[in-house]
Give the backbone structure.
Amino acid sequence: MTRYSIAFLPGDGIGPEVAGAARTVLEAVARRCGFQLEFSDHPFGGAAIDQTGEPLSEATTSACLAADAVFLGAVGGPKWDNAPSRPEAGLLALRKAMNVYANLRPVSVHPELADRSPLRPEKVAGVDMVIVRELTGGIYFGERERTEDSASDKCTYSRAEIERVARIAFEQARQRRGRLTSVDKANVLETSRLWRETVSEMGKTDYPDIELDHMYVDAAAMHMLREPTDFDVILTENMFGDILSDEASMLPGSIGLLGSASLSDQRPGLFEPIHGSAPDIAGQGKANPLGAIESAAQLLDSLGEHTAAGLVRRAVEQVHAHAQWTGDLGGTLTTVEVTQAVADAVAAPEPALG
């Protein structure tokens, strides 16, 4: 029996609840498909600060690098706002240590969710995009300075950093509808001018079959609300991707619905829902587990278990078709109840789509 090792980082706030949901579904699909997942639990973020004084220990880093995949719940919370090292610093350090330079965030709107969006249902019906965000460069990792009266953050990108994430975005477009939108601010920023030049050259030389266009980030933000179905694959740098992907998360009606995969050129990848730790609802059974479960499907794909990933996604579709939702989507179910509905659908001989 094939075995995979999973480094499991529940994290803070609702992190343990949604990570536990993903684990339940992963174990259910592994039983059905005949492979084994071996989980090892490690403190991370604020929980690790409480235990060890730092958000990411050397032991946790080593465990993550040795695993076949890493699953993360969520990190952060006001409890650690004044800590010497914030929980989010551990996340940046882990991404860097794992060299997971490309973050993939699929965004789609199930028909049953169209009227849950803050936009009109006809605007979001049919939305199906992937945002590819560069994850280990840019202003989040640049040099920074602070005095009493001023502060600076340096944004730097090399051509090689742009090329490697752009290649993933082009390949995603090739597997989908063949359209790539590269987002930058080339009318103002030198890093964006290099970004646009590099992506354009790759489009001409390596991917002439892909329809490539460019948008300034402010225009892309507006277009995502005006005509979100126009997008297929979006490629952008670290900070722009952070902002645009959170904007896109509201198209289906809740940030709790979306998962993400942070990938390198080889295993392990890092998988997590895109939402935060939401400490105000932690422990109340209100957290939406579907983003974490979608992340679990991406984890399975990274292991080559595509049949299992498909079963999980179809089970989530069944949950949507039957409106088995938590309160953020107008439902009445708890985190555990939604999780069990997905796990039951995974275990069923032929998951129905409703």
